[in-house]
Amino acid sequence: MRSLKRINPVHFILPAHALRRYVSTYYFFDFTSDSGELEDLLHPEWASVHYTVSGSSRGSIVGEPPLPTPDVNMTGPTGKAARIFFEELKLIGIGLLPLGWYRLVGCPAERWANKVGELEDAPEFALFQNIWTELKSLNDPQQIAALFDRMLLEKITVADPLEMEIENIHEALANPDISSVADLADVAGIGQQRLERLSRRVFGFPPKRLLRRQRFLRTLGSVMMDPELKWSAALDDQYFDQAHFNRDFQEFMGMSPGQYLAMPRPISIAATLARAEHVGHPLQALQGPGLSDDH
Questions:
Q1: Quick one: which of 271, 218, 285 has its CA closest to 249?
Q2: 236 domain-assigned
């Protein structure tokens, strides 16, 4: 691929308006270390496609040994943080919302939860492998975003009757007042058994796990945006106390809150701040089913 035009360490471009129900952002990372290998911990999120322009990385879900990351890959929805190690990494990404997974990938999201797969090895990722073939001749982020818009819009030509149910679930998940599976099903307007099936098929995890992830990420996002904020002051209303949150932190991130804050986190800090500025949401998983006209 041609050398990517020089950009800031993290740069976001919003997809075409008609795609914002399906795709959260297009993003461009450009990191180089002058002091050896860097480490970061990437919080749980929805699925993403990654095209490595130069450099390489190793990574894994917390608790598993790090392995070389495929240069061109799909990372499914994650229910735990992912460790990443790199010295140089120039990468282009497409963030998929749950509805985007359903329409652009199509296979059960649960199959790829907490997993990374090479695009060329899985038939369900054929669209994104085809995008990679055309992407190789481009180096300008705006031109790349236009290519993404064109090829993704070509895939979504007619409405699907399941879209409304998926968006209702997603919108309810993004509501901080929803604290139980029963409330989630009620607000989404579907039965709990159907909610369970659709959650696994489209979102990658059971609804109870998704609600736990949301309350955790709301707290994490608050502190990432304001490092001076104490965890106790940032706690989501659904936590009983600090100890309750600490247990969730250990489960989702594989370490304590203090250990996490002591890490350099070059990608996650830069990405969170840039995303909040350009998209209006610090974390992908906190974004609802579509952005407003203001973004």
A1: 218
A2: yes
CA dist., res. 288 & res. 290, Å (int):
6
Report how far residue 177's alpha carbon sits from residue 186's, in angstroms, rounded to the nearest whole number.
13
Residue with tokens 């106390």: 241
CATH number of the domain where residue 24 is located: 2.60.120.10
Question: Amino acid identity of 278?
Answer: H
Q: Is 176 helix (H, G, I), strand (E, B) or coil?
A: coil
CA distance 284 to 110: 18
Tally of helices (H runs) and strands (E runs) in the chain: 11, 8
Give the pLDDT band (50/70/90) at residue 7.
Answer: low
Our CA angle for 259, 217, 16, nearest 5°, is 125
**Final residue of a domain: which of 109, 136, 155?**
155
Q: To which H or E segment does residue 248 belong?
A: helix 242-253
* 172 within a domain of the structure (yes/no): yes
Distance CA 155, CA 52 (A): 23
Structural domains in the chain (count): 2
The SS3 call for residue 164 is: helix
CA 248, distance to chain mean position in Å, is 19
Whether pTM > 0.90 for this model: the answer is yes
What residues contact 15, with CB distance under 8 A and at least 6 apart? Answer: 22, 23, 25, 26, 145, 148, 149, 152
Q: Is residue 92 part of a domain?
A: yes
Find the domain containing 228 and state its range: 163-286
**Tens of pLDDT along 110-162?**
999 999 999 999 999 999 999 999 999 999 999 999 999 999 999 999 989 99
pLDDT tens, position by position, 53-90:
999 999 999 999 999 999 999 999 999 999 999 999 99
